[in-house]
What does this fold into?
Amino acid sequence: MPELFSWQFATDPYPAYAWLREHAPVRWTTLPSGVGAWLVTRYADARQALADGRLSKNPVHHAGESLAKGRTGIPGERNADLMTHLLNIDPPDHTRLRRLVSKAFTPRTVAVFEPRVRELTDGFIDAFAGRGEADLIHEFAFPLPIHAICDLLGVPREDQGDFRDWAGMMVRHAVPGQGGGGTRGGVARAVKKMRAYLVELIHRKRGDLGDDLISGLIRASDHGEHLTENEAAAMAFILLFAGFETTVNLIGNGVHTLLAHPAQRAALQDSLAAGDGTLLETAVEELLRYDGPVEMATWRYATEPLEIGGRPVAAGDPVLVVLAAADRDPARFDTPDTIDLARRDNPHLGYGHGIHYCLGAPLARLEARTAFAALLTRLPDLRLAAEPDDLRWRGGLIMRGLRTLPVAFTPEARPAS
Ligand code: HEM
It folds into this structure.
């Protein structure tokens, strides 16, 4: 049995997952926090578990103490007012809230936002393009999604600095080693400030609705039902939290994979140069499958005795579906350990499956496509500026991502002004 959750495992968990898939596809494991959980690693079992209504998202169903100890991994969950978000609730509440938010957060909302994502992307690249080197995590992948989500939610520009500080604090805490700050007390204070700010902002916007997402959340109604101010604040919070670090790591892991596979990356550059976006679309999906940001889906708890992959799971047991393992299952994907940006048969689980399927997938795709296209077009000889073995991964449970991604490239000539 390979060692799980070690430093080597954080660097490359895939051999351990291959072993689990083959020898112990549904395995009871004690996590570094001391909490026990079933790890589900085969694609078929994973897909079934993600859609199984007997697996609840509500931590009250945990037979242990995860709720009391705030171990579900999302900062602020101990702040009861923010608890009622989509990833913590089951039908019928989930159905009602998801329907309401879906009215505000539509693919059209995202499409209209595309020029702003391009502008942000170019702005961050402008800041380092003349220098010939950069840390793509800190200077690009980290700031892009938080600026995007602030704009999308409708956080006024003058408040965005504070908002970004609180969000950064929460993510740095969830990710030990990502910069300074982030003690438990500091995170609790940041979450509290963000909640108070969101409630106040929602209140302010109620009298002056715009075309931003928070206004959309206030406006959304379903058979005469609206979100309460607390529900709207919790919704804005989960949109921010679910959409921030995931996008940082989708860009970071994706660029890392592209730099490590020059032939694939050259094919993508050629197709972009020819003005063809088809390969870019399949590439974003393949990068998610091959080394996606969400290593495990969020916690689920058995509400009754059941079986997963033939193993009995007791009521109250936590279940973690390992998306990274399922998406490399040879029973579902041809040559799963090979990256093929043109892969067409690719029903990966990187965005989850079932009723909790990622609500932000259209935005994530837009940000990823824009980021990869801009980087590869503007910095065509982008290369890793570190030994691959020296790169450090963050080692969290749910998320997978790099701490830094040092790159070098020929400096972009400044346009003559
Ligand atoms: C960048 C890549 C992203 C990935 C790989 C990703 C992945 C996921 C996954 C795997 C789930 C399901 C979790 C589970 O079932 O336990 C999920 C749910 C969710 N995601 Fe994403 N996500 C991404 C970006 C975003 C963005 C940008 C947003 C919003 C701005 C977002 C908002 C959400 C929300 C609200 C849920 C909960 C949906 C529900 O419970 O009904 N995500 N995401």
